[in-house]
Amino acid sequence: MTELKPRIGLLAGAAFAALAATLNAASAEPLTVVELFTSQGCSSCPPANANLIKIKDRPGVLALSFNVTYWDYLGWKDSFGRQEFTQRQVAYEPPLGHDGP
């Protein structure tokens, strides 16, 4: 077991060094973060998801998708929905001048 610990530390160190090098290289180019708040029970979400898929591989784009829970009241509970994702979207509302998602 003691032989394994130094190897894990070495691997973690190497992974961290690789990540740091990648981040340093990427920091020269601006990053655009696109967040889609979606739900399995949302009828307008499939077209929005299709748009996210179109842009996800563009250089400098980080595409994120978060399944929210507020559409669950329609009767189809989103199996990927998380309350923390709903709260994330709600936190954006006041600074953006919105009242509700």
Q: Nutshell version of this structure?
A:
By secondary structure, the protein is of the alpha+beta class. The chain contains three helices and two strands; from the N terminus they run αβαβα. A two-stranded parallel ribbon has the order 1-2.
How does this model look, in words?
By secondary structure, this protein is α+β, with helices and mostly antiparallel strands. The chain folds into 2 domains: 1-28; 31-101, no CATH class. The chain has helices at residues 4-26, 45-55, 83-96; strands at 32-38, 61-67. A two-stranded parallel ribbon has the order 1-2. Strand 1, helix 2 and strand 2 form a beta-alpha-beta unit.
Tell me the strand percentage band: 5-15%
What is the distance, rounded to the nearest whole angstrom, between the alpha carbons of the first and last residues?
51 Å
Category by helix and strand content:
alpha+beta
Q: What number of domains?
A: 2
Query: What are the segments in which pLDDT stays under 50 over at least 5 consecutive residues?
Result: 4-11
Rg, Cα atoms, Å? 19 Å
Largest beta sheet, briefly? 2 strands, parallel
Q: Give the strand order, joined by hyphens, for the main sheet.
A: 1-2
